[in-house]
Amino acid sequence: MAAGLAILTELIIPQEGDNQDLTVLISLFVIIVGFMIVSGWSLGRPLYYIIGWIDRLANGTYADSDAEQKIYASKEKKLKRPYHLYKELIIQLHTLSDVLEKSKQDRIQLDEMKREWIAGISHDLKTPLTYIKGYSSMMLSPQYDWTTEEKTKFLMEIEQKADHMQDLIGDLNLSFRLDEQQTPLKWEQTDLIEFVRRIVADVTNDPRAAGYNLSLETTGSHIETMLDVKLLQRALHNLILNAILHNPPGTNVTIHILQDTHLHIVIADDGKGMSEEGVDRLFDKYYRGTSTDILSEGTGLGMAIARQLVLAHGGDINVTSRLNEGTSISVTLPLHN
Predict the structure, then answer these.
(1) Membrane-spanning regions, if any (predicted)?
(2) Residue 67: pLDDT above 70?
(3) What pLDDT is stored for residue 11 in this prediction?
(4) How much is the pLDDT for 294?
(5) How many other CB atoms sit within 10 Å of the CB of residue 172?
(6) Which segments within the chain are labelled E, that is strand?
(7) Cβ partners under 8 Å of residue 226, min gap 6
(8) How far is CA 31 from CA 9, 16, 18, 27, 68, in A?
(9) Using CA of residue 189, residue 191, residue 194, residue 199, what is the dihedral sign?
(10) Is 243:214 a contact under the CB 8 Å cutoff?
(11) Torsion angle of alpha carbons 229, 230, 235, 236, nearest 10°?
């Protein structure tokens, strides 16, 4: 056995001399080249994978690919040894992929909401136009001799539908101006408590508020502050009316006014409440969701406009809600002395 190994060694490794030196050099070269190939593959494979990942992101493919599973050694998501050097980069790419995928889904959802919103707005504008055209045609028809009482009734209907269209167009115009920050505030010194009391009285007298219990609670009788009366009235009116429109009759709606380092106007109801998704999307433009079975009317911009107007006053707005327990909307404004 030993003799055989000796003979094999002599055949592979020549005797001393030039041939032996050449063989050693060639062997060393082969070893170095082999090491470089193995090392290059170990280092280059993760880079090739990362470049491919970035390329997929650039082409709009954000979901995990099948190739991703190959970089892990086990189901516990432990990276294989060659990928350890790029661990932080891989984590950041994962985060970026998740963010881009969520943004893509949100964009798809927003586009769908816009399409539904446009269809709703078209319907809301078409409906009063149909009434106006119908009543106008009836009054102008030579076939009938309408009484004064009937004409008055027709004109009242036309005026009501025209007012509805004016409100819709006003919402659209105001929303676009707020987006472009083209609505400067006209600051006035105002008694906040009396200001809110008038808004509550106005909503109470709205026919849609019949059967609802509205009340105002405050810790003081007089709070002077600076605000844009017209725009903030629009915001608070939208918020209070929203508590009416999206809750069943008999719901109690209470408006609280509090003062500490800021001014707080809290609109709380004990109605049906909202889901987590409803709370998250409440101030989104084009969202016309409702917690009741009543078909939503309006532009779907009322709550978004309310939030924009509160923010324009340097304030903030927050919502908390529980299904079947109620909703609370808190408006916080800076205290102007």
Answers:
(1) 24-43
(2) no
(3) 47
(4) 45
(5) 15
(6) 188-191, 213-218, 224-227, 252-259, 262-269, 316-322, 326-334
(7) 187, 188, 189, 190, 336
(8) 19, 21, 20, 6, 32
(9) positive
(10) no
(11) 50
pTM passes above 0.70 = no
Instruction: Give CA separation, 199 vs 232, 293, 317, in Å.
Output: 10, 27, 18
For 1, which DSSP code?
-
Q: What is the spatial distance between Cα 100 and Cα 57, in angstroms, rounded to a whole number? A: 8
Token pair for 71: 């970089």
Start-to-end CA span in the chain (Å): 105
Tell me which amino acid residue 9 is.
Answer: T
CA 94 to chain CA centroid, Å, is 22
d(CA 12, CA 21): 13
Domains of the chain, residue spans:
188-334
CB 186 within 8 A of CB 309: no
CATH topology of domain 188-334: Heat Shock Protein 90 (3.30.565)
Burial of 77 (0-12, 13-18, 19+ CB in 10 A): exposed
Across 54-72, average pLDDT: 68
Which residue type occupies 220? G
Question: Per-residue pLDDT tens for 238-277?
Answer: 899 989 988 999 999 999 999 989 999 999 999 999 988 8
pLDDT tens digits along 4-40:
444 444 544 555 555 555 665 666 666 766 655 655 5
Closest-CA residue to 253 (of 235, 264, 265): 265
